[in-house]
Amino acid sequence: MRLKTKLVVSATGLTFAIVAVLSILFVGELLRQRIEQTAAANDVLANEVTLMTRQAVETGLRANPPTDLSEEALYSAVANALRNYQPLADVMNAIVRYSPTVQDVSVTDARGVTVVSTDPDAVNQLAGERNSLDSIRNGSIAYQRRQVFGRPQVFDTVQPLDRNGKPFLVVRVGVRSTFLRNSYEPWLEAAALFALLAAIGAMIAAAVIANAALQPIEQISRELEKLTLESGTAPSLPAPDRSGNDAVVRVTQTIDRLGEQMRSKEAGYTALQANLNQMLDTLRDGVLLFTSDRRAVMVSDAVTFFLNRPHEDLVGRQLEEIFDVETELGAAVLRAFADGESVSVESVTLEDGRQVQISLDRFGDSQSGGSMGTLITLRDLESMMQLGQELEIARRLAAIGRLTAGVGHEVKNPINAMVVHLELLRGKLAVAGPEAFGGAQRHVDILAGEMQRLDRVVQTLADFSRPMDLKLREHDLRQVVDAVVELTAAEMQENGVHVVVRVPQEPLTVRADAELVRQALLNLLLNGMQAMPQGGEMRITLHRDYQFGVVEVTDEGEGIAPEVLPRIFELYFTTKSKGSGIGLAMTYRILQLHGGTLDVRSNPNPHADDRGTTFTLRLPLAAGAAETRKAAAAEAGRRAMGEHV
Fold first, then answer.
1. What is the Cα–Cα distance from 395 to 388, expressed in whole angstroms?
2. Per-residue pLDDT at 628 exceeds 60
3. Average pLDDT of the residues in 522-549
4. What is this structure's pTM?
5. Domain boundaries, the chain
6. Is residue 117 within a helix (H) or strand (E), and if so which, with residue range?
7. Average pLDDT over all residues of the chain
8. Per DSSP, which regions of 138-218 are E strands?
9. Residue-wise burial string across 509-544, b where 16 or more C-beta atoms lie within 10 A, e elsewhere
10. Structurally, what CATH architecture does the domain formed by 283-378 represent?
């Protein structure tokens, strides 16, 4: 069965069921109302008979008062009065004759003996037990149906006549169930027929309406199929079956295909956005994307370096709200926007002396010929030079790594062989005595010492080039710094160095090898201590720089000469008489392995207030640490794009 047919049949069946239930309730309510009307009419008849009975008793007792005051004499006098009062008999007979539901009318005494009745055989007989008509009136619909349409029986409408607060005479109007049924059947049949016709009409109307409501599905099916053909097909779902006539099935299949296409494209867009965000996070250039109405929809983290404002606060703002015309950078950007042309490179000197290059690229709409948006790139020349230095240091370290990989094999073995032969030669000279061969033993000892030193150099090279097995875990950078400070506290105190640590209240969670990071920090602290032979203050400052956790180690030492500063991270380069030249190179390598950076600035001027050296260590924060900030910026971007659309 086609799905459309099933839907029509289901709607029709549901409508029939509702109408059937309502029809049953309707007929039942009609039956209740008719029984109520019959009971009310019989109450009127019973009241009429009661009135005539009272008149008969009063008239008879007035005409023939009882000679004896006993109960028997009273009942006998009352019975004679009732039987001899013709108007009472006329009323009772008229009720039986003209009422379609009344079978008999009788008056009984308190003992239940029938005094007068329209049924002569019942006179002077005990009245039989009958159900009250009021019980049917107050019963449920099902109970009423069983009593009226069940086995034949008689129901009484009872009206008592009291004497001294107690029943003295009882008027009974008997209603036969067969009379009720015969009276009710004509209009019940009419009501049932009406309900049946209503149910059939409702079914037909429901079928027509359901069929008409499903007609637009054909048009929807054709439009959806056209849309899927225009947007491409999803390979994981079969093509819709156009050979059948069931439009509902075709629409369902087409919607499934569109859903699959949307999910596939959404996954692609999500991956593209993630890659774009990752790329922007690693850029040192400030990147801002504006819509055609000059509203920022994308701002990279590095923009903070140029504008000194949090980048997430800039998303969704107008161009004039981001760039201040009173500043050199703002004036240059607004001027480039006003020209309406793309700007390849324009250099601007900021108020603090930094040189910044501005690039402005416009994206046009090929159909309308208008501008869809503008991309602004801010590039710091000093950062470019620093990046070049970092690349040069990384290149040199890589070259040393390649060199030491061969040195460890080619030099180590000959050194071992030479040491062995020197030991053999030393043994032979020891037999001949220390003065043999002109004191050759002393030269052999010198050669052995130099061979050991050369062996240590080769071993150091091998250790530096050996791959490190990083054990990455999430750590609070504050705890890592505290551990290093505690480790060096005694040595710092002995050398007169006072260490001041400033940490933020919130955690700085990084994913790193804590042991290697502690080793890198230890190298920086020991270098700073050695740079202050007369003692001084060393400041360690931790803070968050958006996606990075930053540790700054500042000493008050002699500083590093400008000509020496570019070479301090080279392996074996040192200005200390007893230095190895390995510590800073190893620290730099550890930061590289963690995806971080190590920067240095120094002022060797002895008269300057900021004399000394500052090493800045940056480690990427763990994925969840910067999630809230990025989510807020992304939401602001979506709101801005939504307003633009």
1. 10
2. no
3. 89
4. 0.40
5. 3-202, 217-275, 283-378, 386-465, 473-629
6. strand 114-117
7. 78
8. 154-163, 166-176
9. bbbbbbebbbebbbbbbebbbebbeeebebbbbbeb
10. 2-Layer Sandwich (3.30)
